[in-house]
TrEMBL record, chain A:
Name the record gives this protein: Cbb3-type cytochrome c oxidase subunit I
Residue intervals passing through the bilayer: 43-63, 83-108, 128-147, 167-188, 208-237, 257-276, 288-309, 321-339, 360-384, 396-418, 430-452, 477-497
Cellular compartments annotated: Membrane
Record lineage: Bacteria, Pseudomonadati, Myxococcota, Myxococcia, Myxococcales
Family, as annotated: Belongs to the heme-copper respiratory oxidase family.
Cytochrome oxidase subunit I profile domain segment(s): 26-533
Keywords: Electron transport, Heme, Iron, Membrane, Metal-binding, Respiratory chain, Transmembrane, Transmembrane helix, Transport
Lipid bilayer topology: Multi-pass membrane protein
InterPro entries attached to this UniProt entry: Cyt_c_oxase-like_su1_dom, Cyt_c_oxase-like_su1_sf, Cyt_C_Oxase_1, Cyt_c_Oxase_su1_BS
Signal peptide feature range: none
UniProtKB/TrEMBL annotation, chain B:
Domain called Cytochrome oxidase subunit II transmembrane region profile: residue spans: 1-96
Naturally occurring in which organism (per UniProt): Pendulispora rubella
Keywords of this entry: Copper, Electron transport, Heme, Iron, Membrane, Metal-binding, Respiratory chain, Translocase, Transmembrane, Transmembrane helix, Transport
Cofactor descriptive note: Binds a copper A center.
Keyword Flavoprotein: no
Cofactor(s) needed by this chain: Cu cation
Localization annotation: Cell membrane; Membrane
EC number(s) on file: 7.1.1.9
Gene that this sequence comes from: coxB
Transmembrane segments: 26-47, 68-86
Domain called Cytochrome c: residue spans: 217-311
The protein's name: Cytochrome c oxidase subunit 2
Transmembrane helix recorded as keyword: yes
Segments forming domain Cytochrome oxidase subunit II copper A binding: 97-208
Gene3D superfamilies according to UniProt: 1.10.287.90, Cupredoxins - blue copper proteins
TrEMBL record, chain C:
Location of region: Disordered: 1-31
Organism name: Pendulispora rubella
This protein's UniProt keywords: Membrane, Transmembrane, Transmembrane helix
Listed name of the protein: Cytochrome c oxidase subunit 3 family protein
Compositional bias per record (Basic and acidic residues), positions renumbered to this chain: 14-28
Segment forming the signal sequence: none
Keyword Transmembrane helix among UniProt keywords: yes
Transmembrane residue ranges: 51-71, 91-109, 121-140, 184-211, 232-251
Lineage of origin: Bacteria, Pseudomonadati, Myxococcota, Myxococcia, Myxococcales
Membrane topology: Multi-pass membrane protein
Compositional bias (Low complexity): 1-13
Length: 550, 311, 252
């Protein structure tokens, strides 16, 4: 230790009390902006992704409104092409990828492990600012002509278009590094920072989901990074890698792009499933049936996700042999997805079910994800995919998975952990109204899209044939109901922040670890380092005091 | 909804469409029943096991057999689905003997067809009923996708390579063609129409070529040609801004050129702009993408007649 | 204010004693972050994190390696003739320089583990020197390519006389003695070596930072994690070059 004594210790100017409520331990805007506390970073992510969701949602409503009637409704073709591109880019890169892992995960994951923080708190803060930096590039592109390529940036159109492609692609590139570093951080945290007794078989399934997600983030995102970098250089220097005019191959871009972006689908959906586990266990007061199968199904999805990218290229001029292999592999995804659905439903059986708002979202998730998954079977079957590819059927399918799945999981998790994060309760009545509007609005919007899709309506169309008008009208009306639902929810949360009743430690009576520490959690997460003796869902082993809702 | 068959899917217009539809309906009914069961069990549980005072949830036991069954049971089912999907796909992908080869070139934003005899047509193709046809698809600029819903077939048009689809039309009348891969401003205007006719009528068409329908005025014919040749994807007739100059009020105008000169919009200028679009480029439209069109004099005259009506 | 000052004092005191007790949350040596229980846990976490980071680096480079493989199989003659334009002597020299620097980096870790502060500094400085040599050689290689007009993409076939940073004329063209599509080889050459050189430059920055921290006596037999991590990173930079050199320079 001789060397250490000669250094000037990098002591902080002051030490806030680790046992103080994390919201009150430090004050002032700077105590937030440079915080190393995972909970505060999680809250900053949360605010950012909700803002992004609002922006992306506004674009979605604009797109739907334009499609309300044939021909021009509110914008011209170029504006429409920008609107649907920005809807996709904002929702994918700014909202959905960071939504559950970086916002909810940052807050909950270390607490569920019984840890004081993530493994690398400074890296965590850096990830957040990288995300913000990337978002600035995206914003710059938006006010500077925006992008009209679709969020997939397919070449060679992305080489030819006069729109602001490079800043947007660089934005996605930069935000990718935020995602990678969050993944690295979580992987290490799960491996190295579990509390005493917190064994792998006692980990909450939320952790298993985020762990699987982190693997994908670390291994898939760099491929997107190099692809986007090559895309920028191609546009800037004319490398000749993706542009057929220079000897390149546009299909290669699609392979590269989907090698990331299909695993990215699992970066989006697996955390949603992870949240649903927590909610179902709490609101049935029961362990998730088939714990190990559910945990392993997350890992299986993470690994299978790397093998199925080719199903995005069934009609792109890939060889017949490759289409066969990718079709076969794609079907395998049904197995871990089915495992989850079956086990969730089995958990309900003989449970003690309470239909609070988080549970409503979790049950909606099961229903909507089942539809999303089953319509995936249509698209996995080659003969049918050739008909449905690039139609509204695909649009509806992935919205059932991404919105019906991930967004329901995110919103459900937000309701579930809201008291933990803010220390406030919200109006359950208003939450149920919002849920009802979201659920109805969502189904009206996208069931109409399934039908027009199977009838042959291609996606990304500014204008359409008269036979599709009725479906577009219904879909647009659905989008208004959906929008009204989200606005109600937003109002509900704002009212809760301003005048919500104070939450007790464990308002849902959950046996999970994060509810055993004070609400809101102290700066160090726990007053005393916990020793884990039972699983997070062992309601039969939990004491009355642990389950007390007071 | 009279019958789910004709509600969810477009009319079957090719020999392969029925097979695809049968598969679709098979998966549809399976999915519907599966979802119904899941929802029924969920609702049953929610009602039956709702929280009651003093009643606790039953702790979860281990049931390995059940887990294994619903983990590996679906493998059998998905193997069947994969097999069926691939079988029909291959069946629909193989061209029949003696299929007539049609070149389909995608271009921003039109489809150009070439018959085996070398004659070309834009956005309008005539085919004989009951005869197999093979489309050789290519692109001149960006990605497009040749999509014929009536035949349940599509294939991307990829610059730098040839792809193909093949089918046999089974019904007289129109067959819609879409571009299904996003390709820019007028992606949704990149529509083509296949007219399926009797083999005799088709042969007559090949022999005589395209003529204005009897009884139409040159102005009307010009308006038809404006749409048929996809002029409408770049040139508006109401003055709105599109990739090419609007035709509204264009006739007789002194048009400013990109090189600084001015040109009177007259018969010669219009004819040259159709046959050799790059010869003179109007100011403000420097990056013109317009391809040359091989129209005959009567057709150009009709377009000019139509232009004159657009004051 | 006064409370904060007393906190700082007490934590400094606890550092001197290198034991918990002075401050409730600050236990162990000063370099042990508050959220870790033991130095071993902190070391393991840092190491695992670095390996995860290196895994993503490998996948990042894998993209260009795959692109290289595909275009090589598409245009074998172009790649073969184009690779002859590269200077194998310079490439080999750089390979040796990087291999040697990897060895000095490994030795720096060892001397840091043994607590030999001065020796660690020397070895790290040698590593940095090698990195500079690598970049200088690269500079001359690039300059030669620029003069010969062997530029990536649409600038291919337009020799540049004004040095490395001279104005580059735009437009299409090709150097007659090379097969068509050779510009793709040079596109990939510049992208691959360019990204690699960027990693070398980042490495230099990080190495300097470690040298500074080492010189100020931050590391010891008990705590040498940052030296270990930067060496791991440097080995990766070396490893990538080990693949780049034969692929770009040697294979016909």
């Amino acid at each position: 230790m001789g060397a250490a004594t000669t250094t000037v210790p990098r002591a902080q100017p002051h030490h806030p009390d680790p046992n103080e409520n994390y919201l009150k331990a430090e004050r002032g805007i700077m105590s937030w902006l440079v915080t190393l506390d995972h909970k505060r970073i999680g809250i900053m992510y949360l605010i950012s992704v909700i803002l992004a969701f609002a922006v992306g949602g506004a674009f979605a409503l604009g797109v739907r409104l334009e499609l309300f009637s044939r021909g021009r409704t509110i914008m011209d073709a170029d504006q429409y092409n920008r609107a649907f591109t920005l809807h996709g880019v904002v929702m994918v890169f700014l909202f959905i990828i960071p939504s559950i892992p970086a916002a909810l995960g940052n807050f909950i994951l270390p607490i569920q492990l019984g840890a004081k923080d993530v493994a690398f708190p400074r890296l965590n803060l850096m990830s957040y600012y990288i995300y913000v930096f990337g978002a600035c590039f995206a914003l710059y592109s938006m006010v500077n002509g925006a992008v009209d390529t679709g969020w997939t940036f397919y070449t060679p159109y992305s080489m030819r278009t006069a729109s602001s492609v490079i800043p947007m692609v660089l934005g996605a590139f930069i935000m990718g590094f935020s995602s990678i570093l969050t993944g690295v951080n979580f992987l290490v945290t799960v491996h190295k920072l579990r509390a005493p007794g917190q064994t792998w078989t006692k980990l909450p399934l939320f952790i298993w989901g985020l762990y699987s997600t982190s693997i994908i983030q670390v291994l898939a995102t760099p491929v997107l990074a190099i692809t986007l970098l090559l895309l920028c250089l191609e546009r800037f220097l004319g490398l000749g890698i993706f542009d057929p005019k220079l000897g390149g191959d546009p299909v290669l871009f699609q392979h590269f792009f989907w090698f990331y972006s299909h695993p990215a689908v699992y970066i989006m959906i697996v955390p949603g499933m992870a949240v649903v586990n927590e909610i179902i266990a709490t609101f049935t007061r029961r362990a998730i049936v088939g714990y190990m199968f559910v945990a392993m199904s997350s890992l299986a999805l993470a690994l299978l996700g790397f093998l199925v990218w080719g199903h995005h290229l069934f009609v792109s001029g890939m060889s017949e042999y490759a289409t066969m292999v990718f079709s076969g592999l794609t079907f395998l995804v049904a197995i871990p997805s089915g495992v989850k659905v079956f086990n969730w439903v089995a958990t309900l059986y003989k449970g003690s079910i309470r239909l609070e708002s988080p549970m409503l979202y979790a049950l909606s998730f099961i229903f909507l994800f089942t539809i999303g998954g089953l319509t995936g079977l249509f698209l996995g079957m080659l003969a049918i995919d050739v008909h449905l590819h690039d139609t509204y059927f695909v649009v509806a399918h992935f919205h059932y998975v991404m919105v019906g799945g991930t967004v329901m999981g995110f919103v459900g998790g937000l309701h579930y952990w809201w008291p933990k994060m803010t220390g406030k309760l919200y109006s359950e009545g208003m939450a149920k109204v919002a849920w009802f509007l979201v659920f109805i609005g969502f189904n009206v919007t996208f069931i109409a899209q399934f039908i027009m899709g199977s009838r042959g309506m291609p996606r990304r169309y500014y204008d359409y044939l008269p036979e599709f008008e009725i479906f577009h009208k219904v879909s647009t009306i659905g989008s208004w109901i959906l929008g009204a639902g989200f606005l109600t929810m937003l109002a509900m949360f704002i009212i809760s922040l301003k005048s919500g009743a104070k939450s007790t430690r464990n308002p849902w009576g959950s046996a999970a670890l994060e509810w055993q520490t004070p609400t809101p959690p102290p700066l160090a997460n726990f007053i005393k380092v916990p020793t884990i003796t039972r699983g997070p869902y062992d309601y039969h082993l939990a004491t009355e005091e642990e389950l007390s809702e007071q | 909804m009279v019958s789910p068959d004709n509600f969810q899917l477009p009319e079957q217009l090719s020999t392969g469409a029925a097979e695809v539809d049968d598969l679709y309906m098979f998966v549809y009914w399976f999915s519907l029943i599966f979802t119904a069961i899941i929802v029924a069990v969920m609702i049953y549980c929610i009602v039956k096991f709702r929280r009651r005072p003093g009643v606790k949830a039953e702790p979860v036991g281990h049931n390995l057999v059940m887990e294994l069954v619903w983990t590996f049971g679906p493998v059998v089912f998905i193997a069947i689905l994969f097999h069926l999907g691939f079988k029909v796909y291959v069946h629909n992908a193989v061209a029949q003997e003696g299929a007539m080869e049609i070149r389909a070139r995608g271009r921003q934003w039109l489809w150009e067809f070439q018959y085996p005899n070398g004659s070309t047509a834009t956005n309008e193709l005539k085919l004989p009923v009951g005869k197999p046809v093979k489309f050789i698809i290519s692109s001149d600029d960006v990605l497009h996708s040749f999509y014929v819903p009536g035949a349940r077939l599509k294939r991307d048009a990829v610059p730098g390579m040839y792809t193909n689809i093949t089918f046999t039309p089974t019904k007289l009348g129109p067959m819609q063609v879409f571009c299904a891969e996003y390709c820019g401003t007028s992606h949704s205007g990149m529509l083509a129409m296949i007219e399926v006719m009797t083999p005799e009528a088709f042969q007559k068409f090949l022999d005589e070529g395209d003529k204005p329908p009897a009884g139409t005025s040159p102005e009307e014919y010009g308006a038809t040609l404006y749409k048929k040749n996809a002029c409408n994807t770049c040139h508006s007739v109401d003055g709105s801004k599109m990739p090419g100059p609007t035709w509204k009020g264009l006739w007789g105008k002194q048009e400013q050129m990109a090189d600084g000169s001015t040109v009177q919009v007259d018969e010669n200028y219009v004819k040259e702009s159709i046959l050799k679009p790059q010869a003179k480029i109007a100011a403000g439209f420097t990056t013109t993408q317009m391809p040359p069109f091989t129209l005959k004099d009567p057709q150009i005259d009709a377009i000019i007649a139509y232009m004159k009506t657009l004051k | 204010m006064s409370q904060a000052a007393s906190h700082a004092e007490s934590s400094a005191a606890s550092h001197d004693e290198s034991h918990a007790g002075g401050h409730d949350e600050h236990h162990g040596p000063p370099w042990l972050a508050h959220h870790f229980d033991t130095p071993a846990q902190q070391f393991d976490a840092a190491k695992l994190g670095m390996w995860a980071f290196l895994a993503q680096e490998l996948l990042f480079f894998s993209g260009v390696f795959v692109a290289y493989g595909i275009f090589r199989s598409w245009y074998p003659e172009a790649f073969s003739t184009a690779s002859h334009q590269l200077d194998r002597v310079m490439g080999a020299a750089n390979t040796i320089v990087l291999l040697f620097s990897s060895w000095t980096a490994a030795m720096a870790v060892r001397s840091s583990q043994l607590g030999k502060k001065q020796q660690t500094t020397t070895l790290l400085l040698i590593t940095i020197a090698c990195a500079f040599i690598f970049l200088i050689v690269k500079y001359f290689e690039y300059q030669h390519k620029f003069h010969a007009g062997l530029l990536p993409g649409k600038y291919f076939g337009h020799p540049v006389d004004g040095g490395l940073f001279g104005a580059i004329p735009a437009g299409h063209g090709h150097t007659p003695h090379l097969a068509p599509k050779a510009h793709i080889f040079f596109s990939l050459y510049f992208v691959m070596t360019g990204i690699h050189a960027l990693h070398v430059i980042v490495g230099i920055g990080v190495l300097f930072w470690i040298v500074k921290r080492n010189a100020s006596g931050e590391f010891s037999k008990e705590f040498f994690t940052p030296v270990d991590l930067v060496a791991l990173y440097w080995h990766l930079v070396d490893l990538i070059w080990i693949y780049l050199f034969p692929l770009l320079y040697l294979i016909d």
